[in-house]
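Support request, priority: normal
Reporter: lab tech (M.K.)
Component: structure prediction queue

Hi team, I submitted a job for MerR family transcriptional regulator from Saccharothrix syringae yesterday, and the status page still shows it as pending. I've pasted the exact input below so you can check whether something in the sequence is tripping the parser. The sequence length should be 215 residues. Please let me know if I need to resubmit or if it's stuck on your end.
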Amino acid sequence: MRIAELGRRSGVPVPTIKYYLREGLLPAGELTSPNQARYTEDHLRRLRLVRAMVELGGLSIAAVRDVLGALDDPEKSLHKAMGTISAAMAPPDLDASDEAAREVARAFVERQGWTPRPDSYAFKALVAVLTTARDVGHERFTGVLDAYARACVPLAEADLDYALGADSEDEALENVVVGTVLGDAAMAAIRAIARRETSERRKDTGSPPNPEPDC
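Reply from support: The job had stalled in the queue. We restarted it manually and it finished. Here are the results:
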Protein backbone atom coordinates (compact mmCIF):
# COMPACT_ATOMS: atom_id res chain seq x y z
CA MET A 1 0.00 0.00 0.00
CA ARG A 2 1.07 3.62 -0.52
CA ILE A 3 1.58 6.00 2.37
CA ALA A 4 -1.80 7.65 1.72
CA GLU A 5 -3.58 4.32 2.16
CA LEU A 6 -1.47 3.58 5.24
CA GLY A 7 -2.67 6.84 6.71
CA ARG A 8 -6.27 6.18 5.76
CA ARG A 9 -6.33 2.69 7.27
CA SER A 10 -4.45 3.64 10.45
CA GLY A 11 -6.16 6.96 11.08
CA VAL A 12 -2.74 8.63 11.34
CA PRO A 13 -2.15 11.73 9.15
CA VAL A 14 0.48 11.31 6.47
CA PRO A 15 2.73 14.10 7.88
CA THR A 16 2.71 12.27 11.22
CA ILE A 17 3.62 8.99 9.52
CA LYS A 18 6.55 10.72 7.83
CA TYR A 19 7.63 12.08 11.21
CA TYR A 20 7.49 8.58 12.73
CA LEU A 21 9.57 7.29 9.81
CA ARG A 22 12.21 9.98 10.40
CA GLU A 23 12.27 9.17 14.11
CA GLY A 24 12.75 5.48 13.43
CA LEU A 25 9.46 4.43 15.04
CA LEU A 26 8.31 2.93 11.77
CA PRO A 27 10.58 0.93 9.43
CA ALA A 28 11.11 2.34 5.97
CA GLY A 29 8.90 1.03 3.19
CA GLU A 30 10.14 -0.77 0.09
CA LEU A 31 11.20 1.81 -2.48
CA THR A 32 9.39 1.43 -5.78
CA SER A 33 10.79 4.69 -7.22
CA PRO A 34 12.99 7.51 -5.90
CA ASN A 35 9.95 9.20 -4.34
CA GLN A 36 7.58 6.30 -3.72
CA ALA A 37 7.54 3.44 -1.23
CA ARG A 38 5.29 0.47 -0.59
CA TYR A 39 4.11 -0.44 2.91
CA THR A 40 2.79 -3.71 4.25
CA GLU A 41 0.37 -4.97 6.89
CA ASP A 42 3.34 -5.10 9.28
CA HIS A 43 3.74 -1.34 8.89
CA LEU A 44 0.05 -0.87 9.56
CA ARG A 45 0.22 -2.98 12.71
CA ARG A 46 3.29 -1.16 14.02
CA LEU A 47 1.73 2.22 13.23
CA ARG A 48 -1.42 1.38 15.16
CA LEU A 49 0.76 0.30 18.07
CA VAL A 50 2.68 3.58 18.02
CA ARG A 51 -0.60 5.50 17.84
CA ALA A 52 -1.94 3.68 20.92
CA MET A 53 1.20 4.47 22.91
CA VAL A 54 1.31 8.13 21.89
CA GLU A 55 -2.37 9.05 21.89
CA LEU A 56 -3.75 6.87 24.69
CA GLY A 57 -0.66 6.13 26.73
CA GLY A 58 0.73 9.65 26.50
CA LEU A 59 4.23 8.30 25.93
CA SER A 60 6.94 10.55 24.53
CA ILE A 61 8.65 9.70 21.27
CA ALA A 62 11.76 8.69 23.23
CA ALA A 63 9.69 6.39 25.46
CA VAL A 64 7.98 4.82 22.43
CA ARG A 65 11.39 4.20 20.91
CA ASP A 66 12.48 2.40 24.09
CA VAL A 67 9.37 0.19 24.06
CA LEU A 68 9.77 -0.66 20.38
CA GLY A 69 13.42 -1.46 21.06
CA ALA A 70 12.28 -4.00 23.66
CA LEU A 71 9.87 -5.52 21.14
CA ASP A 72 12.60 -5.81 18.52
CA ASP A 73 15.25 -7.12 20.94
CA PRO A 74 16.37 -10.63 19.90
CA GLU A 75 16.55 -11.49 23.62
CA LYS A 76 13.05 -10.18 24.20
CA SER A 77 10.68 -11.69 26.73
CA LEU A 78 7.27 -10.82 28.11
CA HIS A 79 8.78 -10.11 31.52
CA LYS A 80 11.39 -7.77 30.09
CA ALA A 81 8.85 -6.04 27.87
CA MET A 82 6.55 -5.34 30.81
CA GLY A 83 9.41 -3.79 32.75
CA THR A 84 10.43 -1.63 29.79
CA ILE A 85 6.88 -0.44 29.24
CA SER A 86 6.40 0.42 32.91
CA ALA A 87 9.69 2.34 32.95
CA ALA A 88 8.75 4.16 29.75
CA MET A 89 5.47 5.32 31.29
CA ALA A 90 7.21 6.64 34.42
CA PRO A 91 7.27 10.42 34.98
CA PRO A 92 10.77 11.74 34.31
CA ASP A 93 10.99 13.51 37.69
CA LEU A 94 9.83 10.61 39.88
CA ASP A 95 11.23 11.16 43.40
CA ALA A 96 11.43 8.02 45.52
CA SER A 97 14.18 9.07 47.92
CA ASP A 98 12.12 9.44 51.10
CA GLU A 99 13.31 6.72 53.46
CA ALA A 100 10.19 6.68 55.65
CA ALA A 101 7.95 6.24 52.61
CA ARG A 102 10.26 3.55 51.27
CA GLU A 103 9.89 1.59 54.51
CA VAL A 104 6.10 1.86 54.35
CA ALA A 105 6.16 0.69 50.73
CA ARG A 106 8.49 -2.20 51.56
CA ALA A 107 6.28 -3.33 54.44
CA PHE A 108 3.19 -3.15 52.24
CA VAL A 109 4.78 -5.21 49.46
CA GLU A 110 6.02 -7.85 51.88
CA ARG A 111 2.59 -7.99 53.54
CA GLN A 112 1.14 -9.06 50.20
CA GLY A 113 3.68 -11.88 49.97
CA TRP A 114 5.46 -10.11 47.13
CA THR A 115 9.17 -9.38 46.68
CA PRO A 116 10.22 -5.74 47.17
CA ARG A 117 12.22 -4.47 44.21
CA PRO A 118 13.37 -0.99 45.29
CA ASP A 119 14.92 -0.17 41.91
CA SER A 120 11.79 -0.93 39.90
CA TYR A 121 9.59 1.80 38.48
CA ALA A 122 6.51 0.43 40.24
CA PHE A 123 8.13 0.48 43.67
CA LYS A 124 9.49 3.98 43.15
CA ALA A 125 6.07 5.16 41.98
CA LEU A 126 4.46 3.76 45.13
CA VAL A 127 7.07 5.51 47.29
CA ALA A 128 6.38 8.79 45.49
CA VAL A 129 2.63 8.38 46.11
CA LEU A 130 3.16 7.67 49.80
CA THR A 131 5.49 10.64 50.14
CA THR A 132 2.93 12.94 48.54
CA ALA A 133 0.10 11.55 50.67
CA ARG A 134 2.07 12.29 53.84
CA ASP A 135 3.15 15.75 52.66
CA VAL A 136 -0.46 16.81 52.03
CA GLY A 137 -1.61 15.48 55.40
CA HIS A 138 -3.20 12.21 54.24
CA GLU A 139 -1.11 9.58 55.97
CA ARG A 140 -4.28 7.48 56.41
CA PHE A 141 -4.27 6.93 52.62
CA THR A 142 -2.00 3.97 53.32
CA GLY A 143 -5.07 2.25 54.75
CA VAL A 144 -6.54 1.70 51.28
CA LEU A 145 -3.44 0.02 49.84
CA ASP A 146 -4.36 -3.51 50.90
CA ALA A 147 -7.77 -3.14 49.23
CA TYR A 148 -6.00 -1.91 46.10
CA ALA A 149 -3.73 -4.95 46.18
CA ARG A 150 -6.69 -7.34 46.45
CA ALA A 151 -8.31 -5.65 43.45
CA CYS A 152 -5.11 -5.60 41.39
CA VAL A 153 -4.14 -9.27 41.60
CA PRO A 154 -7.00 -10.45 39.33
CA LEU A 155 -6.30 -7.49 37.06
CA ALA A 156 -2.70 -8.62 36.71
CA GLU A 157 -3.94 -12.13 35.88
CA ALA A 158 -6.23 -10.67 33.21
CA ASP A 159 -3.34 -8.66 31.74
CA LEU A 160 -1.18 -11.76 31.44
CA ASP A 161 -4.03 -13.85 30.04
CA TYR A 162 -4.57 -11.19 27.39
CA ALA A 163 -0.88 -11.09 26.50
CA LEU A 164 -0.55 -14.86 26.32
CA GLY A 165 -3.67 -15.28 24.21
CA ALA A 166 -1.59 -14.75 21.09
CA ASP A 167 -0.49 -16.90 18.18
CA SER A 168 3.16 -15.85 18.32
CA GLU A 169 5.72 -14.30 20.64
CA ASP A 170 5.71 -11.09 18.61
CA GLU A 171 1.95 -10.80 18.95
CA ALA A 172 2.19 -11.58 22.68
CA LEU A 173 4.69 -8.75 23.14
CA GLU A 174 2.46 -6.36 21.24
CA ASN A 175 -0.41 -7.48 23.47
CA VAL A 176 1.69 -6.49 26.48
CA VAL A 177 2.10 -2.99 25.06
CA VAL A 178 -1.53 -2.58 24.08
CA GLY A 179 -2.80 -4.23 27.25
CA THR A 180 -0.65 -1.99 29.43
CA VAL A 181 -1.43 1.28 27.64
CA LEU A 182 -5.10 0.63 26.94
CA GLY A 183 -5.56 -1.27 30.20
CA ASP A 184 -4.39 1.68 32.30
CA ALA A 185 -6.64 4.05 30.35
CA ALA A 186 -9.60 1.67 30.62
CA MET A 187 -9.11 1.09 34.34
CA ALA A 188 -9.05 4.83 35.02
CA ALA A 189 -12.32 5.20 33.13
CA ILE A 190 -13.97 2.14 34.74
CA ARG A 191 -12.85 3.23 38.20
CA ALA A 192 -14.46 6.64 37.66
CA ILE A 193 -17.71 5.02 36.50
CA ALA A 194 -17.74 2.60 39.44
CA ARG A 195 -17.04 5.41 41.91
CA ARG A 196 -19.90 7.46 40.51
CA GLU A 197 -22.32 4.52 40.61
CA THR A 198 -21.27 3.58 44.14
CA SER A 199 -21.75 7.16 45.29
CA GLU A 200 -25.22 7.24 43.72
CA ARG A 201 -26.22 4.02 45.50
CA ARG A 202 -24.96 5.27 48.83
CA LYS A 203 -26.84 8.51 48.36
CA ASP A 204 -30.08 6.71 47.50
CA THR A 205 -29.88 4.11 50.28
CA GLY A 206 -28.05 6.08 52.94
CA SER A 207 -29.13 6.17 56.56
CA PRO A 208 -31.51 8.99 57.53
CA PRO A 209 -30.06 11.84 59.57
CA ASN A 210 -29.86 11.38 63.32
CA PRO A 211 -33.10 12.40 65.08
CA GLU A 212 -33.15 15.40 67.35
CA PRO A 213 -32.48 14.38 70.97
CA ASP A 214 -35.37 14.48 73.42
CA CYS A 215 -35.33 17.53 75.65
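The mean pLDDT is 85. Strands lie at 30-33, 36-38. Let us know if anything else looks off. Ticket resolved.
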